[in-house]
Design brief:
heterodimer, A: mainly alpha, 3 helices, 85% helix, flat, B: mainly alpha, Cytochrome C Oxidase, Chain A, 2 domains, two-stranded antiparallel ribbon, disordered N terminus, binds protoporphyrin IX containing FE, binds copper (II) ion, membrane (chain A), Cyt_c_oxidase_su4_bacillaceae (chain A)
């Protein structure tokens, strides 16, 4: 009995450590992303290059935030994920329509 | 401790109980009563419109008054009558159908109701100074340049009641996902619960578009912004998009729960399992999904271009497929069943052909090229009344007959119920069928007169006569409600020999619903027990203490604050001192929220011993 609890305690400890590592890595990469974004604007690259790259990095950062800091990578988040993605889908559709079929 | 156990209460105590209640069954009654009052107001407006259009070149109301009447009729019927009826039905049935003791957030449930209520009151107060007059769709620039304060009431009233709806939708989403009794898997949920789930998702995704649109319009009208003003670099087509991105899902928000309750009613009164249950679930989800990709079918004539029009035309026609699946499944459920023509079933059977007609005209309208002819004529008016009255209103009547015993413990008189049905049904078809042809003959919608010699006289007269028949039906129904509450007999727990969980507990249920959470062993759980068990639900837990939330007056105060703030915002245009009123309202709201946050409210327990005393095994 006691053996078992200490075993699961060890397991939890290891898992926590693993998680901490992920947190640190994502945190560091988010800072790097931010530096790159600033660098690109300061470095005066072509707009058609800068804007898509910044948007791409923003998407990756949102994913990091959701999956590593808000625990969506854990089990039991299927429904929230489904709702989130449907929401993103609706928002995307809306923006696409505004961009394409609203005449100015 | 709890007011629900008190025997006889004075009027004041009852009133206080309802003002503070967090019980989903009482909130259902609140939604029903206020929705009913707004329904009567909207109906009166409709009657006045029809009287004006009874004869050519009529002068019964002025043109300005006519615009206010059509605007308030549409807005009231959709936001203040149909929506609360849907919430009344969801509140009474969903927690009981899934075997829960209440919704997930009882406090928010009450807050959602009071926000809706105060928003509706704010909107209707506009009648004293001039009601909104730019149509329920409030297209810019008509709405942004409309003089007076009418449209300001529209913007702020709908904003406040919309917040309540959003809260209610999220509440049901969490309730259905998290509070199901043991064994109640998704594919065992009654169809009404399923449709309530999909409707809640639609509310969550559609209402924010309205919120955004209303905010932009508020800034345009009250604070001199120019989001919808081309001379300031804005664009009024954006309002049309925002409105319909909300507006089309909204019609499915209204009709899906009605589809669900018809499924439950048909299977109960045909004594058969629902035909094609999984196909019904699939069709519901598919309608919800497609409902988001068709909004531009309201804008074919706006000038989106042929490609956009074609895409949206085809997407719209696709919705007819899952809708057709549902129609056939209802027919197949009845086929070979032991049908009992109760009042609820009568409304249901009448719904099927009526709604199908509305679906047909929908597909006609979806043909973009043809819509250039139909758009903004009475043909469209006929279409949406066939789906909304023939669908939603028939459904609300059916649902009220079906669940009245659960809400009030008495069965609505069946004879009077059928007597109310016939004039309403005949009047409905008289009023709206002829409008298809009036539209095809070129009668535009939202015009305050038509001229003699245009050949529209007879059709309009028939239409107005039909409206009086519908009024008669409604009055008989109201009479039925009063008579039943005075003389009606007490209903048993399961007066319809039904199939789902809400019928396994007394009518009306005790305030804690289920003494012990039931164990669900299949689709139509009560029916399973009637066939394979002893007709009673097996408890899933031993008898124990039940935790209950306390009543609270805070939701009322939060909503009252928003109401005061709305009033202040509307009038600060004339005199900036009104800003103090707005700030006072804001402080009431924020202060109430603060009290809610810092005050611990842990609820209370009903003790096991008290539960045992109250007639164990009485169910
Ligand atoms: C087969 C399904 C349906 C199709 C194909 C369909 C199609 C359409 C189309 C194309 C229009 C625009 C007509 C125009 O303005 O020129 C329209 C209007 C409308 N529909 Fe439907 N519809 C369907 C079902 C429904 C349902 C189920 C409801 C409500 C419960 C509904 C409510 C409305 C309303 C309220 C309008 C008028 C909005 C306004 O301009 O004020 N429809 N429909
Ligand atoms: Cu539509």
């Amino acid at each position: 009995m006691a053996n078992k609890t200490s075993e699961s305690f060890e397991f939890a400890k290891k898992k926590n450590k693993e998680e901490m590592k992920h947190h640190l890595i994502t945190f560091a990469s988010m800072i790097v992303f931010t530096l790159i974004a600033f660098g690109m604007v300061i470095g005066d690259f072509h707009r058609l290059f800068t804007i898509p790259v910044i948007i791409l990095m923003a998407v990756v950062q949102v994913a990091f935030q959701l999956y590593y800091f808000m625990h969506m990578s854990h089990k039991g988040h299927g429904l929230p994920a489904l709702m989130l993605y449907s929401g993103v889908g609706v928002a995307f559709l809306t923006i696409l329509a505004m961009q394409t079929i609203v005449w100015w | 401790m709890s007011t629900a156990t008190a025997q006889k209460q004075g009027f004041g105590a009852t009133l206080w109980d309802y003002l503070t209640t967090v019980d989903h069954k009482k909130i259902a009654i609140l939604y029903l009563v206020s929705g009913g009052i707004f329904f009567l107001a909207g109906g009166l407006e409709a009657l006045l419109i029809r009287i004006q259009l009874m004869v050519p070149d009529n002068n019964f109301v002025s043109s300005g008054m006519y615009n206010q009447l059509i605007t308030m009729h549409g807005t009231t019927m959709i936001f203040l009558a149909a929506m609360p009826f849907i919430f009344a039905l969801m509140n009474i049935a969903v927690p009981l159908q899934i075997g829960a003791r209440d919704v997930a957030f009882p406090f928010l449930n009450s807050l959602g109701f009071w926000l809706f209520f105060f928003g509706g009151v704010l909107l209707n107060l506009s009648w004293f100074t001039g009601a909104p007059d730019a149509g329920w769709t409030a297209y810019a620039p008509l709405s942004t340049t409309s003089p007076g304060h009418g449209m300001d009431f529209y913007v702020l009233g709908l904003q406040i009641s919309g917040a309540g709806t959003l809260i209610g939708g999220i509440n049901f989403l969490v309730t259905i996902i998290n509070m199901r009794a043991p064994g109640m898997t998704y594919m065992r949920m009654p169809l009404f619960t399923w449709t309530a789930l999909v409707t809640s998702v639609l509310i969550l995704f559609a209402f924010p578009a309205l919120t955004v649109g209303l905010f932009l319009m508020m800034f345009d009208r009250l604070f001199g912004a120019g989001f919808f003003d081309p001379t300031m670099g804005g664009n009024h087509v954006i309002w049309e998009h925002l409105f319909w991105i909300f507006g089309h899902p909204e019609v499915y928000i209204l009709v899906l729960p009605i589809f669900g309750l018809f499924s439950d009613i048909i299977s109960t009164f045909s004594k058969k399992r629902l035909f094609g249950y999984s196909a019904m679930v699939f069709a519901t989800v598919l309608i919800g999904f497609l409902g988001f990709m068709v909004w531009a079918h309201h804008m074919f004539t706006t000038g989106l271009g042929p490609i956009a029009n074609s895409i949206f035309a085809i997407a719209t026609m696709a919705i007819a497929v899952p809708t057709g699946i549902k129609i056939f499944n209802w027919l197949f459920t009845m086929w070979g069943g032991v049908i009992r023509m109760t009042a609820a079933m009568l409304w249901t059977v009448a719904f099927i052909p009526s709604f199908t007609l509305g679906g047909f005209t929908g597909v006609m309208l979806a043909a973009a090229a043809a819509d250039f002819q139909y758009h903004d004529t009475y043909f469209v008016v006929a279409h949406f009344h066939y789906v909304i009255v023939g669908g939603v209103v028939f459904g609300v009547f059916a649902g009220l007959h079906y669940w009245w015993p659960k809400m009030f413990g008495k069965i609505l008189d069946e004879k009077l119920g059928k007597l109310a049905f016939w004039p309403f049904f005949i009047g409905f078809h008289l009023t709206f069928f002829i409008q298809h042809f009036l539209g095809l003959m070129g009668m535009p919608r939202r015009y305050w007169v038509f001229h003699s010699g245009d050949g529209l006289d007879l059709g309009n007269l028939i239409s107005t006569i039909g409206a009086f028949f519908m009024t008669l039906g409604t009055l008989i129904f109201l009479y039925n409600v009063i008579i039943t509450s005075i003389k009606g007999e007490k209903a048993s727990a399961d007066p319809w020999d039904a199939r789902t969980l809400e019928w396994s507990i007394p009518s009306p249920p005790p305030f804690y619903n289920f003494k012990q959470t039931p164990l669900v062993r299949g689709l139509d759980p009560l029916w399973v027990e009637k066939r394979q068990g002893n007709g009673k639900m097996t408890p899933a837990e031993p008898l124990g203490d039940i935790h209950m939330p306390n009543n609270s007056f805070i939701p009322f105060m939060i909503s009252l604050g928003s109401f005061v703030m709305g009033y202040g915002l509307i009038y600060q245009v004339d005199d900036s001192r009104w800003l103090f009123v707005a700030i006072a309202g804001l402080l009431i709201t924020l202060g109430s929220m603060f009290v809610r946050s810092v005050k611990d409210d842990l609820g209370y327990h009903i003790h096991k011993e008290d539960l045992e005393e109250k007639g164990a095994g009485s169910e």
